Amino acid sequence: MTSVQRVTLFGLFVLSVLLTQGCSSKSGSLIGQDLQGQEERIAEPAMKEIPPNDAHLSGSRTSPAMQSELTARNATGLDAGMLADILFEFDQEAVQGDAVHVLESDAKQLQQDSITHLILEGRGDDIGTSAYNLVLG
Prior knowledge:
38% helix, 4 helices, mainly alpha
């Protein structure tokens, strides 16, 4: 067998394999077929109503765990969370319009109580990544 015949025979073999693979029927294909949907029913609500906690009605969005930590670190003995939260615009370093009045009110309260040292901490929300919220905080 010459080399030309070997190449021709090998080419015919490859061509026949490609044709049989390309023309074979696709089993399990769902293209063009309608599927029946299944219905799922939930028997009762997954969550039950939680009664409101009077501690959260103060208007502060500081969590109870954070309030207890702030109370422990507070050297003045004043209640932690007595200052209102200051909110910033989304993805901005500027405070929201109504937060300026809250900031001025907090400053007056600190001056009246003769507070000389203050720990200021920022908290990010769960929209951004942890690294992004650390930069904002």
